[in-house]
Amino acid sequence: MTPWKILIRSAMICLLVGTVLFGLALRKTDSLPLSGVPLKFDAMRAHANMKLLAKKFPGRVTWSDNRRRAGDWLKAEFTKLGYTPQSMTFSEVIEGKQYTDLENIYVEKRGTKHPDEIVVAMAHYDVTDTTLEGAMDDASGVAVVLELARIFSKENSDRTLLFLLTDSEEFGAFWGARAFAKNFDRADKIVAAENFDFVGPDHQTRILTLCSGLKNGYTPLWLREIALDSVRSVGGVKAIDFDNIVEFIERAVQIPPADHGAFLAEGIPAFNYVGQTDHFSNEMARYHHTPGDVAEIMRPESFISYGRAAERVMRTIDTLVRIPEDFRNNSYWKISSHLYVDGWVVTLLHILGFIPFLAYCISKFQTTLYTRKREMLLVVLKNETKNIGILLASLLLGYGIMRLLPSLSIVTQYEVFPATQKSVILSNPNLMAILLVVGSILGVYLVFKRTFQTPEDLLEHSEIRHALHAVFLALIIFLAFLKNSYLAVLLLLPPAYFWVIIRTRKKAEDRIFNFLLLLGGAITFITTAVVLTTIFHIGVIYWYLFLSATYGLISAYTVVLFFMVLTVMIRLFRSFVM
């Protein structure tokens, strides 16, 4: 049986098995009962606190005196409510300078029945350098936390309630939240955390629940459904979250937009509320991280539904007879508002997606072994392995130089990532840094090529090279699965099937066809990059990716996998397009 027949037949079998398995694995989401205690959230009081913070302490960038003064004011407000404010100081490198007085502020209300189980309500009180008042983002969230703290200061709670205001959310990739989740001495006792970033401006019509973790983690289904049901219960706005294909992308990319992601990365169940208008893209363009984010755009009535939903979540979790036994489990995929698939089934479906490709690779490699002379195979294997090694080593050395750029002061040094959306740095690529890395890759490649490379194999060897490329791609897919099966499917499924059908003949029309196939293999990567740029205002996409790799927002493991795929793509281009 030819490799093509094996590919087609295995694809049909996997499609049938996957469809049956998917149908049998569908589960209906089960909602936990919400608290029926009357809600006491005072929207006018919250709006007033938002306005005070925004107007009295503008420019609360994390290194500023106004951020420090805002922290003192917040501690005074907690004290008025009868709490004893506590601080967690931490350090961070911002624009090449080490700051050691960054401050998370929190207070606790000890529970009476389950004091060792902690429920967190949090928001960040710093602002980005492209805004001033930061009324929406995130004085509004801080005001919600203050109001929740006021409500619960007057009554007993079953569980310990912790009200947290983080610093440095806008710089360093949620550095304040990361510091708290990693260093709080009872972080393992936190059963849930709700983050408020942010109440919507103008006429708020929706509240979005965000669930993605920073490099790792996702909101457990039980907490996600409590968050959604709480919004539905208060009325006035629509409860929405990202499911289906958008959740799939979130789980693959794992770069969240707020503090909850840092908690999820540490295995702490968390979610984020984002207030929205009917024109969210316009809201993000006009107000988010701009000087237009002022107190005047915020309506008191927007705090009603947002604050009451937040209160209901906290009351519901507080009064649960028992937290779900698997309360940290985030292994599922929600495919609609009321249906999900268990994580182990999702992983199995991901594997089924690649089985036809793997079957084709094995068959083609066996066919190549049987139809080519052993001496020819060894020569081509040696040469192609050497060519792949030279190219990959050059790329990895370039990545090593990229990681050294901050310490060499070629790009400004930051702890993990410079700043969040609309930061000036994201729209101003450092061409010298880019040229240095690209030049280093090319220089090392030329030296390696002159030293180690042998001449390209003959045209009749292209079939063997193609089989070797497929085997190498299969290895990359396996390594990607060890990291994140969602990422493996999103970015490697198209290359797996587009690149295996490359024509090994070298007519002009074949080269054009092969070039289109190579582009087709990169389609999901390109699409994801464009979508991220459009929605999140992250500036010039290639510069954002460059910075993400330089500072470590994208893990080294993922970068190495990317370079391995790029190596295959370049070698295919060299062999079947040029």
What does this 3D model show about the protein?
By secondary structure, the chain is of the alpha/beta class. The protein has two domains: 30-337, Zn peptidases (Aminopeptidase, 3-Layer(aba) Sandwich); 374-576, no CATH class. Helices cover 54% and strands 13% of the residues. The chain has 19 helices and eleven strands. It has helices at residues 3-25, 43-56, 65-80, 135-153, 175-183, 221-234, 244-253, 260-265, 280-286, 302-319, 343-371, 374-404, 431-452, 462-483, 485-499, 508-521, 523-536, 541-551, 556-576, and strands at 26-28, 86-94, 97-109, 114-124, 159-166, 190-196, 206-210, 238-241, 270-276, 332-334, 339-342. The strands form two sheets. It has an eight-stranded mixed β-sheet with strand order 2-3-5-4-6-9-7-8, with helices on both faces. The chain has a three-stranded antiparallel β-sheet with strand order 1-11-10. α6 links the parallel β7 (206-210) and β8. α1 runs antiparallel to α11 and α11 runs antiparallel to α14. The radius of gyration is 27 Å and the shape is globular.
